[in-house]
Design brief:
alpha+beta, Nucleoside Triphosphate Pyrophosphohydrolase, SH3 type barrels, 2 domains, five-stranded antiparallel sheet, four-stranded mixed sheet, 4 helices, 41% strand, elongated
Length: 220
């Protein structure tokens, strides 16, 4: 099997086909934002015509856009809004004795410290597996082997086009001190699977994408 070594794990050739498909999806989204495109719904036989969009606000983490869309069924045309985020990645890092690497950090949106797993943004042109290993190392100082994607979701198709990947890293261990950003204050802990399940069912973990990633892992 042809494999690519990322230093923390490997990716099979089969995944190369997967990423080619993902790149095609991304290109389709970019095209839809620049020219009129007809999207067909095979079940309802409706057509949706998407026209060029324009930028309303650009920030370091999201670009907000708006553009007209024509509904073929009703003939009505209306402006839709897009929150154009980069792709994200969450990492389920598991130690050799089966514990999961959790972090606690303050979140401005919820205005409280949240229990999460390591993760962050995928840089332009960066492979999600490599991004996950990078975020794990930067936030916790942990690294491992056999890093691979075990899930992918679209966080909110109504207003977003990005994806959030779940990367599993096995035999995770601390190899260096964390390299946090100047506005990060992260506490790392190792927690058993049973305790993680309790956090999930009790509502102590409320971050939807973190819950999603953990459910991907628990279903493997």
């Amino acid at each position: 099997m042809n494999e690519k070594d990322y230093g923390f794990g490997k990716r099979s050739r089969r995944d190369g086909v997967y990423w080619s498909a993902h790149d095609a999806i991304q290109r389709d989204h970019q095209t839809a934002g620049s020219v009129g495109v007809i999207v067909e719904d095979s079940e309802k036989e409706n057509n949706w015509e998407i026209f060029p969009d324009r930028v309303l606000l650009q920030t370091p983490i999201v670009t907000i856009k708006t553009g007209p869309v024509l509904c073929g069924r009703s003939g009505r045309r209306k402006d839709f809004y897009l929150f154009d985020f980069p792709d994200w990645v969450n990492v389920v890092a598991v130690t050799s004795d089966g514990q999961i690497v959790l972090i606690r950090q303050f979140r401005y949106g919820s205005n409280r410290v949240e229990i999460e797993i390591p993760g962050g943004m995928v840089d332009p042109g960066e492979d999600p597996v490599a991004a996950g290993c990078r975020e794990l190392l930067e936030e916790t100082g942990y690294a491992g082997i056999h890093a691979r994607i075990i899930g992918r979701v679209c966080p909110n198709p109504a207003i977003q086009r990005n994806h959030c990947y779940t990367v599993l890293v096995e035999q995770a261990r601390k190899v260096e001190e964390p390299r946090m950003d100047e506005m990060e204050d992260i506490e790392t802990s190792l927690v058993t699977v049973e305790a993680v399940r309790a956090y999930m069912t009790s509502g102590q973990i409320e971050h939807g994408l973190v819950l999603n990633a953990l459910m991907f892992y628990l279903s493997v």
